[in-house]
Amino acid sequence: MLENLFPTRLKQIRKDKKLTQLQLSIRMGVHINTIKRWEKGTRYPGPGEMQALAQALGVPIRDLVTFPEHPEI
Questions:
Q1: Alpha-carbon span 31 to 66, nearest angstrom
Q2: pLDDT for 72
Q3: Whose CB among 11, 21, 67, 71 lies 3.0–4.6 Å from 35's, allowing a Cys bridge?
Q4: Segments in the chain forming alpha helices (H)
């Protein structure tokens, strides 16, 4: 399920926070291609990267893997 939901939520949250892919990559200290691959769903963050991503976006990890209107998913 993470594979289907994560790219959509990441892009949505990043845009809600008014961040570009480049800005997010700089905040995280990763290459911009990493962010692009995550948003395309061709690569997924490991546990440490997921924590860093949530911290960089200022959201709990659960927000990256669930939709607010359906928190049980």
A1: 25
A2: 53
A3: 21
A4: 2-16, 21-28, 32-40, 47-57, 61-65
Full-model pTM: 0.85
Q: In this predicted model, what pLDDT tens digit does every residue of 17-63 receive, in sequence order? A: 999 999 999 999 999 999 999 999 999 999 999 999 999 999 999 99
Residue with token string 């709990």: 60
Nearest Cα residue to 34 out of 24, 65, 6: 24
Strand partners, 67: 70
Q: How does 30-58 read in b/e, with b if 16+ C-beta sit within 10 Å? A: beeebbeebbeeeeebeeeebebbbebbe
